[in-house]
Every structure is written in structure tokens, then in C-alpha cells.
Hints:
Layout: H1 6-21, H2 28-31, E1 39-40, E2 46-50, H3 55-60, H4 67-79, E3 87-90, H5 104-121, E4 125-128, H6 131-140, H7 152-155, E5 160-161, E6 166-167, H8 174-178, H9 183-197
Parallel strand pairs: 2-3, 2-4, 4-6
Antiparallel strand pairs: 1-3, 5-6
Helix pairs in contact: 1-5, 4-9
Bound molecules: iron/sulfur cluster.
Iron/sulfur cluster (SF4) binds next to helix 2 and helix 5.
Amino acid sequence: MKQLSLSEKQESLEVLNYQIRACKRCSLSVTRKHALVGEGDVDARIMFVALSPGVKEDSQNRMFVGPSGQVFNKLLHAAGIDRELVFMTNLVKCLLPKNRKPKMDEIESCSQFLDEEISIIHPEIIVPLGYYATRTVLTKFHADQLASGKSFTEINGKLLLLDDKKIFPLSHPAALLYNPSFEPETIKKYKELKTFLYGNLKTRDKLG
Ligand code: SF4
């Protein structure tokens, strides 16, 4: 898809969001309150891809308003990244009951929406949060070989440079709810993310 103008992005996203809200492609449509659409700057240079809405996000129909969202806000603030200037979305747009893991067919059905979001927003850096989002994004960009044989822990916080895209896998903010001791290290990675936007790209971080 060619790069869209701002108004074309807004129009395309509106059409896509209408489709997401009405989607019944998988059985998660039965248990959700809302199918959550992406949120943020349609012209963003950074796109965060989380796993799925939590209970609060599902009931309030907003991205990152629950406990993970509070952690996410804190990380952005510590790194000096403005939440209004990024785009945030989920790999799976509907709540996963009892926080269970997503099934392959749910990821496959729903990630078609993610493809379209990436085409419309056209971010420079995609930041998949956690294992499932990272695996899916790497596969989409045929970059899984860059990380083959490596665990998520090994590629967490490593910049992957593709031809026209950068992928920077990070752990999901929810991880800090269970392991608060990782906070300083995670803030460091968010600060690195900011430097990628303003030059100082460290090719030593490249994998492969
Ligand atoms: S999870 Fe995705 S594919 Fe499944 S019903 Fe929700 S929006 Fe549709």
C-alpha cells in the first residue's frame, strides 16, 4: 500500500475500525463487551502492539486503561515519550477470557486487522509487546529467521533493522506487575526507543 496522506489515513482507519467493532470472525466475539480498536496518532512514528484488551479495557472500550496501562504510562513518561504521539493497538482485539493465552486461529483471524493498521499508519518502528505480538510481527515481516533459535528474552530490547522498518520487541508492561524489579532495565529500553527516533541509532543492537 502506498503511503497515505493524513486525511486518507483517518478515513481508512475509520472504515477499518467499523469492521473491527462488528467483527465476529472468532468465538471471542461472544464473550467480549467491545472489540477494541487501535488508539493514538494516525501519523505516529512508533506503533506499540500489545496482546489483547484486559478486563478494564474491554469494559471501558479504551486502550491501556487498566493496571498494565498504568505501567505503560509510567514507562512512556520516564522515557519522555508522549502517549499522544504514538499509536497503540492489540494483536487480538477482543478480551481473552480469564487472561488465557490466545489460540492460533484467533491470532490468525485477528492479525489481518493488524496488517491493515500497519499499512495505514506506516510507522517507522513497530514495538511488539511480549512473546505473541513479537512472534506474529516477526513472521509478518519475514524476519523470524533473524530471531531463529533465540528465546524472547534474548531478543527483548534488541533492535531488528529490516529494509523499510524497525522492530523493537519489548516485554509486555504487565510483566512489571509481577516483576517490579525489572523496572529500571525496562525504562532504559524505553529511553533507547526514544533515541531511535532522533538519530543515534546503534547498529550494534542489530541482530543476525
Ligand atoms: S478477536 Fe479479532 S477476529 Fe476475533 S472476533 Fe474479535 S476482532 Fe474479530
